[in-house]
Amino acid sequence: METTEIAELVRAAQAGSAEAFAKLVTQFEMNVFGVALRRLRNRTEAAELTQDVFIQVYRKLDQLREPERFAGWLKRITVRM
After folding, report:
1. Which of 28, 49, 66, 70 can pair with 36 through a Cys bridge, CB separation 3.0 to 4.6 Å?
2. pLDDT category, 12, cuts 50, 70, 90?
C-alpha cells in the first residue's frame, strides 16, 4: 500500500471511519507484531502488545498531524510501549 493510500485511510479513520481503521490494522498488524517479537522474544507477549498498541493508536489517532507519517508514528508507539 502506498503512502498516499495510507494517508487517506488515516484521514478517514480520524474522521470516524471504523472500516478505515480496520484496514490500517490489517495493513500494519504484522509489522507491529514483528517489532514487538524482536524486542520481547515471546510470541504471547508480542501478541498482547500488538493489541495494546492498536488500542493506543485508536485513542491517539486524532493527535497525528501528518497522516503521511503514520508508519513511523506507529513504530515509535510500538517501541515505547
Report:
1. 49
2. very high
